[in-house]
Structures are given as structure tokens and as C-alpha cells.
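Researcher: Let's run the pair from yesterday's discussion. Sequence first, then C-alpha cells, for each.
Model: Starting with the first of the pair.
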Amino acid sequence: MDVKTLCLGVLSMGDASGYEIKKVFENAFSHFYVAGFGSIYPALAELTREGLVVCSDIEQEKRPAKKVYQLTEKGLSTFSCRPFRDLSQPQGSLGLHGAAGVRTSA
């Protein structure tokens, strides 16, 4: 599974900043996929260019504006239809099928 798909999945649960998305990655996906800001922000930028997410600046007192990402209808449709074909091919860590004890064919 790629970072873009995971970002769409997180955003399907609600709007989030890049920092909040990274926290979900650390808490929910870290056992089968590791992603840092260096892969999350480029993925969000690409998703924005593709029209799958929109980004809004939220003003904060005594801090820089916070960028909050929101799934568009197109993004939700894309996420809902996206095949999960990459689950059996983890990127540097144990995949979801392997973690669940399900054998996958090579």
C-alpha cells in the first residue's frame, strides 16, 4: 500500500493536518508501514494536485497557519474504489496480510 492511499484512508475519517496524519500513521499503521513527513507531505501535495484533497490554512494565535487537509468527493470515490493489491507486498516491513497471519501467493 502506498502513502497516498493511506493518506486518503486517514482523511476519510475526517479533516487532518499533516502532523495529525503522521500521528495516525505512527499509532495505527506503524506495524506494517512506516512513513515520515518526507513522504506524507509530498503525497498530500500530489493528492491536492489531483483534486482528491483540498488544503485550507487555519490561522492560529502566535503560531504559523495550520494546513488542514480535507477529502473531496473525488477523493472519497477514488479511495472507495482503489484496489488494495499492494497489501501483499510490504515496503520494508511486515504487510497487513502477513501481520494477520494470512498467507498470500507470490
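Model: Moving on to the second of the pair.
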Amino acid sequence: MSSVIPEPTQPTTTDYIDFCPIDTPLATRRKLNVGDIYINQIRCHSCGWHIRSKNRHDFVTCKCGKVSLDGGSWYQKINGDMSLVSDHSIMYKFGVSDV
């Protein structure tokens, strides 16, 4: 009798935009531990990839490895050659001023 061992599943990254749309008020976002950046995304001009950080410690690198991004909705940390980067981030509609 042989038992079948299921394949391990890949860990998934929680994407805050799934439960916190762009018009979510600041107080609600803070309760959900979501920052002020709706989409934290850059484009690498060397390889053409758009990379997006989906949560606070989601460190992602482009295909060619020349630029990286971290921070999710809380901050934007870009590593690499800044002349190869264009920022494509979108901020939440309600910022710090709506407190």
C-alpha cells in the first residue's frame, strides 16, 4: 500500500489591493496595516520589465537584475542604477491630510 504525498504549494504574497481599494480612507487603511502607496511599481529601462512590491518586505528584482524594489504600500526603496528606472507608482486617493 503506497500513500501519495501531495505536492507542496507555493507560498503566496498577500496583495493589499485585494482588500483595500484605492478610495479606502486613511483610518481604515491604518487598521488594516496598509500604507499610503496603492501600487508600488517601477519600470526597468534595461530589460523593459515592470516590477511591483506587493507588501512591506516584498523585495523584487527585474529580469536583468539591474534594479530592485521593496516597500509595498509603506515605502519605496529602489536599489540599482537610478538612470534605468521610471516610477509608475500610484498613491491612495486619501492621504495623511484626511485624518
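Researcher: Give me one sentence on the second I can quote.
Model: The two ends are 63 Å apart (CA to CA).
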